[in-house]
């Protein structure tokens, strides 16, 4: 669900018919689906990977920490550096690198080579997603732009709903290397789709925001407060998410099957949250949705922390309910927060604000997963839920001081 700092321009459409243009956006969504699947699939597989490498889960979690940090830092840099290139070629190149990196991961000979492969994936993903969103907005008529962007973002939504449990099932049945192989196939299909379905000249003149323009948006107090809320939301989210497998094994004595089913529950709730969150935003306003989401997140995380004090059979229902609420609330927050960033200033600055939000989000993911790894290494599993809940509560308190649009 990465946004873009590129603006739509008068690029020629991929097809003369509206359906053809939206179909082109569908080809671009194949890439976001592959990226989303790879990003979310790794959490339930960390214990098995740790066992294979003879390392602790908290150490293997550096695969998540480094990936999110590199993506956050590299995305705006690579986007600016590639500004003079044709968008179609950029997307094919980025997805080609992403696919090759997944092949390298599938055949990695050790943890070091696997980590290097994920670094390469992060750079490619950080370049692909904002450019895909920008191109989707450029190849269609203005009245179709919202639908085109929704289609590209929908690739990530489908990854949450289907890719996450699919990765868990494939990984547990055939080994974690097979999941990288499956994502490589998805990436190859995306490359072929873009190659055949996107006009060669599409998006050749998209505007890319420079450093001065980005700093100008960051300089606005209201934008900084909104980005602060995103930061605490994302830190809390990823302090807990990568460690859902060891948490379930510790608290509920779940083995791989139970973990896989619970991860599927989280994924279904998260997909519902993205969809319903958008509708709730339109009906009740973004501020109410953000506040309710952060409140529910706080309660869900603290419930997970408290459940570690209970016997497994007693903790079962509270944990499953908390996991479902967590998945729903954490992604219901997202469309409402994006709507507020768009409304926080003139339309021309919206792409930059959303791009900054994406970098902030992935920075938070990296910080949160690092803190969660430290807590896990210390053996205090309840501390993960406690810390994540405190982050969500901090975001809620910061929201109370924000004069953002409703």
Automatic annotation (TrEMBL):
One of its GO terms (cellular component) is plasma membrane. It comes from the Bacteria. Keywords: Cell membrane, Membrane, Transmembrane, Transmembrane helix. It is found in: Cell membrane. GO terms for molecular function: transmembrane transporter activity. Its main location: membrane. Residues 24-406 form the Major facilitator superfamily (MFS) profile domain. PROSITE patterns: MFS. InterPro entries: MFS, MFS_dom, MFS_Efflux_Transporters, MFS_trans_sf. The chain crosses the membrane at residues 21-43, 55-78, 90-107, 147-166, 178-198, 226-245, 257-277, 289-309, 315-334, 341-365, 371-398. It is a multi-pass membrane protein. The keyword Transmembrane helix applies. The keyword Cell membrane applies. It holds the Pfam family MFS_1. This is MFS transporter. It comes from Herbaspirillum aquaticum.
């Amino acid at each position: 669900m990465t946004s873009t700092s590129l603006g739509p321009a008068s690029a020629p459409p991929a097809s003369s018919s509206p359906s053809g243009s939206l179909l082109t956006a569908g080809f671009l969504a194949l890439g976001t689906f592959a990226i989303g699947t790879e990003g979310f699939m790794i959490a339930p597989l960390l214990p098995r990977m740790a066992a294979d490498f003879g390392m602790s889960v908290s150490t293997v979690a550096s695969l998540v920490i480094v990936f999110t940090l590199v993506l956050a830092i590299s995305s705006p840099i690579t986007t600016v550096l590639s500004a003079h290139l044709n968008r179609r070629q950029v997307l094919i190149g980025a997805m080609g690198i992403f696919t090759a990196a997944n092949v390298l991961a599938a055949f990695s000979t050790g943890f070091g080579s696997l980590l290097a492969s994920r670094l390469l994936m992060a750079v490619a993903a950080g370049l692909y997603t904002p450019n895909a969103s920008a191109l989707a907005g450029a190849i269609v008529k203005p009245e179709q732009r919202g639908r085109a962007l929704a289609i590209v973002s929908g690739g990530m939504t489908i990854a949450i709903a289907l890719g996450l449990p699919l990765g868990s099932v494939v990984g547990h049945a055939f080994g974690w290397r097979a999941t990288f192989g499956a994502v490589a196939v998805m990436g190859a299909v995306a490359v072929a789709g873009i190659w055949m379905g996107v006009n060669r000249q599409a998006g050749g003149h998209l505007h890319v925001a420079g450093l001065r323009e980005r700093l100008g948006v960051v300089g606005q107090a209201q934008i900084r407060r909104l980005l602060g809320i995103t930061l605490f939301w994302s830190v809390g989210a990823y302090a807990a998410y990568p460690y859902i497998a060891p948490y379930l094994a510790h608290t509920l004595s779940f083995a791989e099957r139970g973990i896989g089913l619970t991860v599927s529950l989280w994924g279904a709730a998260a997909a519902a949250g993205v969809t319903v969150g958008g509708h709730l935003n339109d009906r009740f306003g973004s501020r109410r949705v953000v506040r309710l989401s952060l409140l529910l997140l706080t309660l869900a995380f603290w419930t997970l922390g408290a459940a570690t004090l209970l016997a497994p059979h007693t903790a079962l229902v509270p944990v499953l309910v908390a996991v479902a609420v967590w998945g729903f609330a954490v992604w219901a927050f997202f469309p409402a927060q994006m709507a507020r960033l768009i409304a926080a200033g003139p339309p021309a600055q919206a792409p930059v604000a959303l791009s900054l939000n994406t970098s902030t989000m992935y920075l938070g993911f990296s910080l949160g997963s690092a803190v969660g790894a430290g807590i896990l290494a210390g053996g205090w599993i309840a501390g993960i839920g406690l810390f994540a809940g405190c982050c969500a509560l901090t975001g809620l308190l910061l929201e109370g001081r924000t004069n953002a649009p409703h």
